[in-house]
Amino acid sequence: MGRSKPGGSEGISCVGASVRRDIGYALYFAQLGDKHPAAKPLKGFGGAGVLEIVEDHDGNTYRAIYTLRLGEVVYVLHVFQKKAKRGSATPKHHLDMIRERLRHAEQMHKMRINQ
């Protein structure tokens, strides 16, 4: 498929090497046009256009959010460590950041198409 785009200053570099490798491998599936078993649609984003990869490592949970909505490019929108010990819901401030980065990715993609 296409290239991956970084998701801001946090990005995948903020997590350990093992988690980076696992998330990177799942993103590689997306670049090839496939879906890794760890990837699932993120609730609240209207279907399978925005997906999350959930990885557990050393008692911690990490999430990477990406979109396939924009043609041949995989845009990584956010990578973070889930801090809450109860519940699986993504905290509102993370969802707000993902929405903002999705809007930015859509704008970047539109500019790229119009060049």
Architecture overview:
This protein is an alpha+beta fold and 115 residues long. The protein has 2 helices and 5 strands. It has helices spanning 17-31, 92-114; strands at 4-5, 39-41, 50-57, 60-67, 74-82. Strands 1-5-4-3-2 form a 5-stranded mixed β-sheet, with helices on both faces. The longest helix has 23 residues, at 92-114. The chain starts with a strand and ends with a helix. The model is unreliable at 1-9 (pLDDT under 50).
Radius of gyration: 14 Å
Count of helical regions:
2
Helix percentage range:
25-40%
Number of strands: 5
Q: Pairing-aware structural class of the strands and helices?
A: alpha+beta
Order of helices and strands: EHEEEEH
| Backbone shape | globular
Q: Report the β-strand fraction as a percent range.
A: 25-35%
Q: Mean pLDDT score, rounded? A: 82
Strand order, largest beta sheet: 1-5-4-3-2
In angstroms, what separates the terminal alpha carbons?
20 Å
Main sheet overview: 5 strands, mixed
Q: Low-confidence stretches at least 5 residues in length (pLDDT < 50)? A: 1-9
Entry keywords:
disordered N terminus, alpha+beta, five-stranded mixed β-sheet, 115 residues, 26% strand
